[in-house]
Prior knowledge:
By secondary structure, the chain is mainly α. Helices cover about 55% and strands about 5% of the residues.
Amino acid sequence: MKPFLSSSPRVLSLIGLFVFMCFKLSAQPNYPRTPQEAKLVSTDLAHFVEAYEALATNTDTLEVLQTLYFDRGTPGLKEFINRHQLTPELMRDAMRDAPERYALLPEFMANISQVEALYPELMQDFGKVLPAAMYPPTYLLVGANRGIGQASLQGQLITVTRVADKLPVLRKLIVHELSHFQQAMTMGGQQYAALYSTPDNMLGLCLREGGAEFITSLVVADITQKSALEYLEKEEKQLKERFVEDLKSQSKDYWLWGSLEQPDQPKLLGYVMGYKICEAYYKGAGDKATALQDILKMDNARSFLEKSHYFDSN
């Protein structure tokens, strides 16, 4: 959760958060296997803008949102609604609380060709890094002004309210979530989802997010948690020592999503600690293609950490 991350803590907020994910092995769609087949779906965004503009003359906000946005939802929006219990009431309240963010969406939709133009090249670049990748559709959605991006069996679910004026951040977010999708397909959906209910799972969670960040870095030469990475590299020795100690007690809040509501500390340092471990593993591997598969599969977090040798000099 967090790839919008480049500005406020809330923006970094829930972007990549997979706690609510539940991949199932049965009835998987027949996903495209080539970048050229990847689809960017902006239908829901167009429906929201239609509803937003209708509200200029219709004061029944809930009815307009329900009929023009919710009732016409794509499979991606329906999945998002189910996961986050999104309702017209929540949307209305968010629009009242942050009108400036929603006011960006008509212009964003009017210029959607810019996003559509960058998307094929982005998928081509992704395919160069992971030639065996699968390409579910990417859905551009409007939610209750929370920075949420997630992978799902329907495809990538990307809320645009926080990134409508930040196309570079949107690019990173799409790649980060598509990377999570490859993780789930590589290790199997049930195993992927099981990590979130597994006790003492701090290392696995950091490596999962760090793996998605590392793949993102190979595709776009950047990561979603750039400010956190800058902080970690400045305080690397101290933070490596703390990470080792916190692993013993499984104290996750400093490293993962508990950090989002704590303004006195860096956010999501576990993402970039996981990134650094994956980076060290990849750089030390003779076979880079196999190393990438190991990063995706990650079936033994402790063994992976040891083989990375990232803490050997700590």
